[in-house]
Amino acid sequence: MIWQLDILILILVVICAIASITVKDLLSSALLLGAYSFLMCLLWTEMGAVDVAFTEAAVGAGISTAFFIGAIYYTTRRTKD
Amino acid sequence: MVNRYENVLIETVTRLLIPAMQLFGLYVIAHGHGSPGGGFQGGCILAASFILMVISYDIKELKSRMSENLNTILCAIGVFIYGGTGLLCVILGGNFLDYSVLHKILPVDPIKARYMGMLMVEIGVGIAVMSVMISIFLNIASRGEHEGALN
Predict the structure, then answer these.
(1) ipTM value for the complex
(2) First vs last Cα of chain B: how many Å apart?
(3) Residue A79 within any structural domain of the chain
(4) Residue B151 located in a structural domain
(5) Residues of B with CB under 8 A from a CB of A
(6) Is B137 within 8 Å of A70 when comparing Cβ atoms?
(7) Best to test chain A binding among B17, B35, B51 (most A CBs inside 10 Å)
């Protein structure tokens, strides 16, 4: 474990999480959530939990982003609130 | 396949990428008990290759390779392999998913039987997760109609 790398990835995770709930464009929000998942995957790999990181990369960054994008095709692109 | 779709770049990259993704998914499933990975992750990677096919071509292309009936049957077969391996252990006198009693019907010792049982469960979970993920994506992306292009 390298604590400087931990802190750096953790700051990026927080930035991605806050950005994905504040941005008005739904497609950007879904992609930022994918970036959040990938950074969580990096964090878990760096902490030594490789199996959890693999699951996060396959499900969080891969499949669920595709699900969100597939759902956004049938809604409005921009959020109303 | 030539000139059927608009973007030659997406078509070529997808045609090269999908077999590599499927091979990697099978690798992850087959080596799930010895290294990171397993049935769930491998099934997700296999499903992601089919989802990439839907996104870059259309749903009809997926239907010609994996129909809805085949998808449902594969889902049931995956759950059957998983539950059947567990119940076979119960029938042979062990606990649920206690693979070491499988050496009574397999020509191997208990440690190798544990290895084989784990592999069977990983294969079942992989098949089930792959078909369920494809089914969820098709139902989300086409509003349950299962037809049309995705753009």
Answers:
(1) 0.82
(2) 19
(3) no
(4) no
(5) 28, 36-38, 40-41, 44-45, 47-48, 51, 55, 133, 136-137, 140-141, 143, 150
(6) yes
(7) B51
Shortest alpha-carbon distance between residue B139 and chain A (Å) = 9
Query: Which structural domain range is residue B26 located in?
Result: 8-141
- The answer to whether residue B149 is domain-embedded is no
Q: Kindly state whether residue A78 falls inside one of the protein's structural domains.
A: no
- Mean pLDDT (10-residue bins), chain A, 81 residues: 89 94 90 93 90 90 88 81 68
Q: Residue A80 falls within a domain, yes or no?
A: no
Query: A49 is in which domain, residue-wise?
Result: 3-72
Pick from B129, B46, B125: which is nearest to B85 by CA?
B125
Total domains in chain A come to: 1
Question: Closest Cα to residue B85, out of B116, B111, B52, B51?
Answer: B116
| Domain assignment present for A16 | yes
pTM: 0.85
Q: From the list A50, A58, A67, which residue is nearest B136 (CB)?
A: A67
What sign results for the dihedral spanned by CA atoms B117, B120, B124, B127? positive
